[in-house]
Amino acid sequence: MKKKAISLFLALTLVLSLTACSNSDNGTAEEPVATKTETQNSEEAEEEGLKEIIISEQWTIDSVDPVSQGKVMNQKCRVTELLVETDERMNLIPGLASSWENTDENTWIFKIQEGIQFHDGTALNAEAVKWSLDNAFEISPSLVKRSNIESVEATGDYEITIKTTQPNAELPAYLHDASLGIVAASTYDADGNVTTPIGTGPFRFESFDEAKGELSVVKNEEYWGTLPTYNRLVIRMITDESVRAMSVESGEVDIAVDVPFSEMEALDSKDDLRVECYDTNRIYYGYFNAASMFSDKNVRQAICYAIDRDTISKEVLYGCGTPASGPFNSSIAWSNPEIEGYKYNPDKALELLKEVGWEDTDGDGILDKDGKSFSFDILTFSSRPGLPVMAQAMQAMLSEIGIQVEVKVMDNNAINEEMEKSDTWGINLTTAAAGLVPSSVYFLNSFSSANTEVYGYSNLELDEMLAACAAEYDQDKRYEMSKEIQAYIVDEAEEIFVCNYGVNYVFHENITNFKFNVEARDWMLNTDIEID
Amino acid sequence: MIKYIGKRVLSAAGVLLVVSMLTFFVMQMTPGDTAYVMLTHTFFGTGDLITQEDLDIATEMYDLDRPLTVQYGEWMLGALKGDLGTSYIYKKPVMDLLKLKLPYTCILGFLAFFLGLLLAVPLGILTAVYRNRFLDQAIRIGSVLASSVPGFWLGLILIMFFSVKLKWLPVSGMNEGLKSIVLPCVTLMLGMMPVMIRVTRSSVLDVMGQDYMLFAKAKGQSLFQALLHHGVRNLLPPVITMASLQMGNILGGSVVIETVFMWPGIGNLLYNSIMAKDTNMLQGCVLTIALGYILSMICADILNAALNPKTYRGGGRMA
Amino acid sequence: MEEEQTRELWRIERLQVFFKTRGNDIMAVNEFSLSIYQGERLCLLGESGCGKSVFGMALLKLLPENAEVLGKAYYKGMETVGMSEKTFARLRGTEIAVIPQGAGSSLDPTMRCGKQVEECLRLHEKENSQVCRQKVLSLLKRLELPRLPGIARDYPFELSGGMKQRILVAAGIVCHPQFLLVDEPTKGLDWGCRDKVITLLKKLVEDEETSVLLITHDFNVAKSLADRVVVMYAGEIVEYGMREDVLERPVHPYSKGLLAALPQNGFQAIEGFSPPLDQIPKGCRFHPRCPHATGRCAQEHPNLTDLGEGREVRCFYAEG
Q1: What global pTM score does this model have?
Q2: In chain C, whose CA is at the least distance from the CA of B230?
Q3: Chains meeting B at 3+ CB pairs closer than 8 A?
């Protein structure tokens, strides 16, 4: 009897586990979120020689929400478009808004382009734009806080008026935010969940397989602008960078973004592959700890001189990222081309240090002052793979002039805590998207006293310059002021700018005419890329 | 039997409770402010500039400023009702996500597990029967090699060879049906087989040294007849116990393997949830894996009990 | 009877068993020559470690792989030492069977007792399960096992030591073998069980007319079962002959010593210990312990001396 019970139980568990699997298996077939429209069509099209591009990237696509996943929906997929677009130097140009002006410091009027339709056929008008913006502000309140927006009102069929709580001279720049892609209300169901992202862009959302994290979009034949040259784009997530490289090598994908630096040369040497590197608007830089020997400007500048950026660019980044002289990539409109930065000069570094008393008095090869030897930690993290190696290169370069450095690679999230409790940290080596907002002061503001408090800085002069620049409504004047600030920041050397952040693309030979867009946060494809 | 099952269920519940508490509080102890990590995984990129304002908003949105015990308590109450909360990176109920991804892990895991056993047990028997001969040595060297190589590296080597060089199999993902499952499955199998071969081998050797095997031979049975009649039931218990532990290892190992091969199972989910400090999601994944572990151990116990007459014949009836 | 006895079942010629070890080869059985006749019960008597079980296992080809057997053994005229395992396997069970020692470990703990007895029948006689089961049950009944037929469905752990030993006996003789090796049938049993097993065994072999090679260290077992007795010491035969001759009027000093060590004779144990097989003394293997040893005993290895009437002794001073 008992034996029977056991076998019964066994059979039951087996059956249960099997059904559980097969059940949920069926479930996924139905569920994969959103509509899987026209897969049939696209398969047919494929037989006719569909121009399809498959790109593999490292980033996980968690959802297709056009707000929280704005970067995906706007930049990568081109499903949504923005009121304000940028050109190749990140100058603001008209997007869905044909023009804008401010009637006073807190009031902005945007004219909406007429005759544009959403993917679902509804017209783009002021009401739709207002709904879309309000929706985004609700989902991501920090957008509002950052841009000081108070309200958005439709003041005509094709005109909206935006009021701000405080003057924001660069409001249009803040509207160029991937999270603010204009979508139709039909994107969401009654409960506020995304069903199908409906935008106005050159591509329509096709499918998203949530389990695999694979997303595909197809050409929007009714696009109001120039039609793209390819019909379908598939974004495939491949977390491991080596696997990503192999996926393009095997021909499974057409483009792979961010392959390991060390494998670029080998991949490029293959007949059917091409590797291209570009500087993004992101920058590798470090904050000095003002509560240490770095409170002295001479010391900071000395470190800046002691770092050989050319070598780092060549040896650490394999050329994927050029040496940086200031906070902005030179292809950005408001970057100051006259800044020379700190050219590698160890003698000058030693001289500067000597001036303020750092010398090797006891002959142990390490600089010292008042009996204290010159040593500190560089804190950095590894999820941007260039950083740890860069830190080690800096360590080697600094040891040549008698400075002892320890590199601490930790979780990105742990660095803030480490800075609070450690008194030996000297440089927090990190990266940031300097052009996140196409504004000449947005990134510079991160060097204001309010934001550098954690590093121990307070520079009222800089704060004043930043406030004045932000309050300037004339763009040309603002750019000039920004350039001055950049020069000031570089001279003060409260931060050390190392290299521009490079991105590499591996193309299969069938892909040509790729144009890099400096505003891309991860990657972007131009719609006139050629595919054979 | 009923008593046994009851006891097992109770202890399983206890284990799950402890696991969930550990997961929750350890997660809170890992460096990084939850709101900060959350923002870097949703609206911002890693290393992007995040202001205090942004942090305050996120904290308020997800009620992160409540005491930890309250947060855990509320989660626990929900979990008891079958609601594991919502993942903030995916913005979906954890339960839905698990339902979505678990089948893939199950398919891969079970396939690797059963194929692995199907190969490892006979190989283990062969190495024992032909011990110290060429076959035995070859298999043993092979398994030492396989077990000393980390799973992800093995995966990369396999991809390099079979996908890039030979182009027989896809590099990753699961777009080519059966072909897609081959490499991740083989990688997982190679991870568990060495242990299983070793356990089977020593178990067979142990059984072969028993007097009843000699007696079976004296009765006229060949070695394989004897192994079949007397060996199997006696050599299986350690093999089953080890197999149940391997089942747990497969579930855990799938985290790495799934990341390399982009297999859309809970391994990926777990990886992302740790990276993004998505506590609810992580709880869901960890509890699922723990449950898998517990279930496989219960199965092993039941199987072993069924194989051992002492358990169901009581303490024996002496004349 | 006389004619029957002359029919040789086994003729063993200079059988030697070596165990290969890391250091050197150990000789466990040395130049063993012996005949076993049909229907007779031969007892191999000796202390544990003297090589008697090794000899038995060598005869049955059941030694581990590291053992090497030299010499010849003819079973019904067929040479078995060089015989292939496959050919020999056909003799196992039906012609040549064994009742192994260690009732506890020789039974598979996971198989019902009845089935373990039945196994041999099923393997060799190809009869249907009903017939086999009946045969097994009647055999168990003859062995006076209680609780029939239920006991056949019991597992070994549910039986007492004596019952397990009887199950083993049943499994050994179920196919009516011509030759039965009984290895230490009383080892580990209490006195009551011991007598019962011996009585049963005696009755059984008389009924079956099976030749039996009984291996034991127990004088009393030998006394009650054997027709002829072989005394072994340190891997060699030291004396053999008819039961009455050897057990009551032993010639070899070792046999005498064994007799004197029996409780009824006053527990006069032989001094010293039998040597380990890798430290065999030169000369007569027993000389270090022998009260009558002379210089010759320490130098020269004695051969078996024929004393007539089928009696041989390995001692220079056998007459004495």
Answers
A1: 0.76
A2: C108
A3: A, C
Find the CATH number of the domain harbouring C90: 3.40.50.300
CA distance to partner chain A, nearest, from residue B130 (Å): 34
Distance from the Cα of C263 to chain B's closest Cα (Å) equals 32
Q: Which residue in chain B is spatially nearest to A418 when comparing CA positions?
A: B31
- Mean pLDDT, chain A, as a whole number? 87
Question: Any idea which residue has 């010639």 for tokens?
Answer: C251
CA closest to B214 among chain C residues: C62
Is residue C188 less than 8 Å (CB to CB) from chain B? no
Q: What pLDDT digit, counting tens, does each position of B60-80 carry? A: 777 777 788 888 888 888 888
Put simply, the answer to whether B91 touches A416 (Cβ < 8 Å) is no
Domain count for chain C:
1
Determine, yes or no, domain membership for C146: no
Q: Chain C: residue nearest B315 by CA?
A: C158
Tell me how far apart the alpha carbons of residues C167 and C139 are, in angstroms, rounded to a whole number.
10
Q: Which residue from C310, C292, C317, C286 is spatially nearest to C34, judged by alpha carbons?
A: C310
Number of compact structural domains in chain B? 1
Residue A30 pLDDT grade (very low, low, confident, very high; cuts 50, 70, 90)? very low
B and C: number of Cβ contacts within 8 A: 85
DSSP A228: P
For residue B199, tell me if it sits in a domain.
Answer: yes
Q: Identify the CA nearest to C115 among candidates C176, C177, C173, C171.
A: C171
- For residue B247, the enclosing domain spans 99-265
Is C123 domain-assigned?
no
In B, residues 177-216, which contact C (CB 8 Å cutoff)? Answer: 210-212, 214-216
Query: Which residue out of C98, C107, C110 would a mutagenesis test of the B interface target, given it has the greatest number of B Cβ atoms within 10 Å?
Result: C110
Please judge whether A145 and B102 are an interchain contact, meaning their C-beta atoms are less than 8 angstroms apart.
no
Whether the Cβ atoms of residue A217 and residue A205 lie closer than 8 Å to each other: yes
Residue type, A153: E
- DSSP 3-state assignment of B126? helix
Q: Give SS3 for C106.
A: helix
A470 touches A324 (CB < 8 A): no
pLDDT band at A24 (very low <50, low <70, confident <90, very high): very low
Domain with C187, as residue range(s), is: 4-95+177-313
Considering only CB atoms, B159 lies closest to which of A209, A246, A251, namely: A246
The pair of three-digit structure tokens given for residue A133, joined into one six-digit string: 């913006």
Q: Give the residue from A486, A467, A462, A474 showing the smallest Cα distance to A330.
A: A486
Residues in chain B with CB shorter than 8 Å from the CB of C107 are 212, 215
Q: Spell out which residues of chain A touch residue B108, defining contact as CB-CB under 8 Å.
A: none
What is the ipTM metric for this complex? 0.84
Per-residue pLDDT tens digits for C101-125: 877 788 888 888 888 888 888 887 7
**Could you tell me if residue C290 is inside a domain?**
yes
CATH number of the domain to which B261 belongs: 1.10.3720.10
Distance in Å, alpha carbon of A280 to nearest chain B alpha carbon: 14
pLDDT over threshold 50, residue A32? no
Domain membership of residue B283 (yes or no) is: no
Could you read off the pLDDT of A334-383 as tens digits, one per residue? 999 999 989 999 999 999 999 999 998 888 889 999 888 999 999 998 87
Whether chain B has a CB inside 8 Å of the CB on C72: the answer is no
Q: State which residue of chain B sits closest to A236, comparing Cα positions.
A: B173
Q: Say whether pLDDT at A142 is over 90.
A: no
Residue B84 domain flag = no
Question: Using a CB-CB distance cutoff of 8 angstroms, which residues of chain B are in contact with residue A31?
Answer: 100
Tell me, yes or no, whether B61 lies in a domain: no
Q: Is residue C135 part of a domain?
A: no
Distance, CA of C50 to chain centre: 12
Q: How far is residue B181's CA from residue A306's CA, in Å, rounded to a whole number?
A: 52
Determine whether the interchain pair B272/A451 forms a contact, defined as Cβ–Cβ distance below 8 Å.
no
Check if the beta carbon of residue A209 is closer than 8 Å to that of residue B104: no
**Cα(B165)–Cα(B27) distance, integer angstroms:** 42
Quick one: average pLDDT of C233-237? 89
